[in-house]
User: Fold these one by one.
Assistant:
Number 1:
Amino acid sequence: MKDILTAPFMIEMIRTTTNMYNHGWDERNGGNISLLLNEAEVREYLDTDRVLRTIPTGFKAPELDGKYFLVTGTGKYFKNVQYAPDVNLGLVRLTDGGGNAELLWGYSDGGKFTSEFPAHMMSHVARLKVDPENHVVMHCHPANLLAMTYIHTLDEREFTRTLWQMCTECIVVFPDGVNVLPWMLCGTNEIGEATAEKMLTARLVVWSLHGIYGAGKDLDETFGLIETAEKAAEIYMKIAHLPRVNTITDDMMHQLEARFGVKGREGYLS
């Protein structure tokens, strides 16, 4: 059996968590990632019949029964993942309709998955309904998107349009726009359910005064999705107090739609 630390999904998870920390998106133990894996790739590295322990999840997700996830741990710092992946990450299989998680590898210090695990799993359920190729849910605290929620209306159409107007590539990268939640208590099933509902119509969901959730087909795409939105928010925060002489117009965005074969969210452009 192969060494799991050589698995492509493990190498990419370590690389991504390190990069996110270096970007300043995941201070201390802020942020979390879950990656859906298929059984065949897991079996190359682990004996799936060897369960280390069972961890109650505190929710139900029958659609994910039997699914495998590589997940960051609760209270863990992204900066430490590269040095001790077996402590800071865990690979689990959901059972009992999602009510329990069988630990197959990791959390070697006795820890468990992130406190946002319910929100992640509910978002996985939602995104898989929209696109079966969406295997990643990523949460982090990008400073400019967070700052933007303090000074910009939280209306989803207006929030999206502002981001689209900041960078030419934005409507191409996230044509489905950005959904926004008001402040809610984190680590609860309630915020998980609200996020999952928003995930049905967009791959980016802003948690006001907190951070952002992103979903995508792999770690690289999801990172790039958040990175693009954060860059747009950074530009906005630099110019929000200044008179705007130029902007990306709706006509320009329609040209981008035609050029790149995308379609902006219905009703968001004139």
Number 2:
Amino acid sequence: MSTWYDHPQYFDMVFRDETAGEVSFFEKAFHSFVPRPVSRVLEPGCGGGRLVVDLAAKGYAVTGLDLNQRMLNYLGRRLRRRGLQADLIRGDMTAMNFDEDFDAAFCTFNTFRHLLSDRDAVQHLRSVADHLHGGGIYILGMHLIPLDADPECIERWSASHGGTRVHVTIRVVDFNRKTRQETLRVSVKAQKPSGAIQRIRSEFPLRIYTPDQARELLAQVDDVFEIAGIYDFDYDIDQPRKFDEDLTDALFVLRKRTE
């Protein structure tokens, strides 16, 4: 039984249908919220890099950072197959160090919640701000947990590509509001064109945020970031959301303050 993160091709298959909508939203946000043309962009926690590949194909100078070298190797192969280039760096998203600043950055679909402490979350946000031009934006997406959330949540997806069929089940196996941590179990069944079946299981913790806890976090960095817009996972730039208890699929556009 291997792990989810050792097989980034399956991770990409599951979320590939989200890519076009996300990238379209990014470009609209670049145009709406950034006072300068956007050319250099950063994805901390890039994983297998579906967003890195798509933005590189559109001509952006993209940097992807991740701790998992297997993910970065997979992403490098994807870029080479398509004749694309991006800077791929193995590193910690709480203490980044780049020679040049970026016009925009993005981290969507709960990658941010892998940072399990308030200290790490704040360090990450400040590290991103340190590497943005004034007026640059950070698009941050994560699920928020309402007070009446069911801790026994189960989600299932199926996806196929190149003759391979993948079934994914994500189950919450531990949920603790006091420690603000939940543990997810990801089970993958992949059937290859030959008929061979591969099974993968991973468990990993994520930090829990209610809307109020997310508000408190962002207040800790309001000296460097202002909230320029709030959206959800529909990625509709014309449908902003309120920062209230009904916001569960949160997409924040944070803009670096200018001095």
Number 3:
Amino acid sequence: MSIYFYGCITLDGYLADKNHQLDWLYETGSPEETSYDAFYAQMDITIMGKKTFDEIADLENLADFYGGTKNYVFTHQQALSSDLFTPVSGDVVSFVRSLPADKNIWIVGGNQILAPLLDLDLVDQLVLQFAPVLLGDGVPLFTQKEAFKRFTLKEIHQYGPFAELVLEK
């Protein structure tokens, strides 16, 4: 099993603004300008938090982005607005460890999902795209308890306005 985080953050490290909105991202560029398609083709499973799900749930072409994977959303709700996603609850680390060993897992979004996995050194690769935006405040990507983590820089790419770093543990 390999666990990946793939996502875009601001230059100052935020996933979303202080109101949990992604307008800054949508106004900067689109997935067509990134490595999304090539990355997604390698994934078997996605895991996200409810706030991330709420942000994407109303996309017209949701199946284009998540139709090829088994998708899980950590939530206390019993059902979600899309049949493409399965609600789950409990401990994210236990859940991830229960998944088949031969699968590639994408942690889509949510610092509360990512942090416990980083704490236990379970994340194999970070694919971080940086948007040329400073928010000054918002939802930070990195909130793990164990602050010191070392990754190796494997690749650097530019996709339109985005700079992408591929880092491995």
